[in-house]
Design a protein that fits this description.
The chain is mostly helical. A two-stranded antiparallel ribbon has the order 1-2. The radius of gyration is 14 Å and the shape is globular.
């Protein structure tokens, strides 16, 4: 339980840092970042598998590149659901998605 809480807090703080560094990304505070981490986790657990199944043929045809589009869709859904989080533009959502994936991977490697 302790590791999970540390991962959550670290991910929220780093997500807030990403929002401050990346252009066209707005997040209203660390509390909003914590909520964003929860929302993104729920979207990744529920919506993303459905999008992967629906988009499987396109994913195969694009050799997996379509998965990046699915990640952008998840980020834009979080943007739609949260008033305290905003990402303007496709490229900004893509960069935020890639950076967040990298940060999450690093946090997982460091904590585990």
């Amino acid at each position: 339980m302790g590791k999970l809480l540390i991962k959550f807090i670290l991910t929220a703080v780093l997500t807030y840092g990403l929002a401050n560094v990346l252009p066209n990304v707005r997040l209203d505070g660390v509390g909003s970042a914590a909520i964003l981490v929860i929302v993104m986790g729920l979207l990744n657990a529920t919506v993303k598998p459905i999008l992967k199944i629906i988009g499987f043929p396109v994913t195969v045809l694009t050799l997996g590149i379509f998965l990046l589009i699915i990640n952008v869709i998840i980020v834009k859904l979080a943007d739609f659901l949260m008033a305290s989080f905003s990402v303007t533009g496709f490229i900004s959502a893509l960069i935020f998605s890639l950076a967040l994936s990298l940060v999450t991977t690093v946090v997982d490697m460091v904590i585990d």
